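One-letter codes give the sequence; the fold follows as tokens. Both lines appear below.
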Amino acid sequence: MKYILVFIGLFSTQILFSQKTQVDYLLSNVSVIPMNKEVILKNRDIAIKNGIIVSITDSKKGIFDAKQTIDCTGKFILPSLGDAHVHLPGNEKDLEKYLTLNLINGVTKLRSMRGDDKHIEWRKKYNTETSIYPKMYLSATPIHRSQDFSNEQLFQYVKDIKENGFDFIKVLSVKNQDVFMNLDKLCKENNIKMAGHFPSEPKGLVISDDIIFNSNLNSIEHLSGLVGDPIFFESRITLMKNKSIFSCPTLRWYEIAYGQFDINLIQKQKGIEYIEEKTVAEWADKTIKYREKIGEKALNEELAFYAKEIDERLEVINRLNREGVKLLLSPDSSSKFIVPGFGMMDEIKLYKKAGLSNYDILKAGTINFANYFNDATTGSVEVGKKADFLFLNENPLENIVAVGQVEGVFFNNNYLNKQKLEELAASVLSNKN
């Protein structure tokens, strides 16, 4: 009987082991911030196979056999970030560094807002199925008021965009209302979205709000059409909410452009070491010379004037969020002193200053980005979605600054731990000895 019981025990163990699901990665004992709702799922095991989350279970169940198990005790994970307003470098030799700086800051998705035909080839090269580089969502060459399109030229413009695989059209400005309406008609026929500046300008071209808010424009950048336009402010917020139009405020760009910074402190900010010393020195020199040229009195008046506008922008963001308008997150790192990737934390702090909750701020950089592109595979940590998230040592729902201290990234079935991220950071460091 004794031997029979031993045999049954061994046989049962073999059956139990054989029934364990084979997966590539198992993240054990992690706290999950799923971002589909404001909760923390503590002590969870996340099983990943072929880059997809196949299970999120209580860590005590132990039903998986993984090729690699990662002990995540004390760690928090949330979806990786998406920067919704970027300007890719002018040449490919700077692109890898640009992508790397975003990656080490937990940014795995980029919405390009100043397109170029060569970007399609860049995406094919740098966004392979197993690439570690952030995924690029591409706009076509922007529409601008200097372009006097004929109907045939506009048709060809949209046709080329569709055939080349661009994701949307960036609208800088338009020559007249007819061009905008014809462009919108073609976009609707080809299922292409538009994003960009508010096309109606009080001091220039005026297009009726009825035309704009019934167009395929689904994202308005820089709070244009809202800041400094009190007559239409209330009605436009209502229309943005009702028409599900996103807003990408890019506050950090305005903070820098309006001189709202200490010249000494900004040269010591986190990430500045990745910018060439010569470039930083040129930025600082131009700023100092400008401030000296206009004089202390005029400078103080200018800074105070723009500080009021920054406050207005913060109030507008708070209002948009309260009204349920979906916000996107981006510092618009095309400006001096804004370091790609690192600038996201500065933008997050400004959203916090605007009075948003940590959860709402995180939504702007995660699930809202996914919803903007109707992407049901990213934006939250759920079974069936891509394993696309970052690791933190602190709970960002309690301390939003934790988002700027990335401990690891999981993306495209690649696990990049702290050591790997540091190696990548060192590979693009500008100020090497």
In short: The chain is about 40% helix and 20% strand. The CA atoms of residues 277 and 431 lie 7 Å apart. The mean pLDDT is 93.
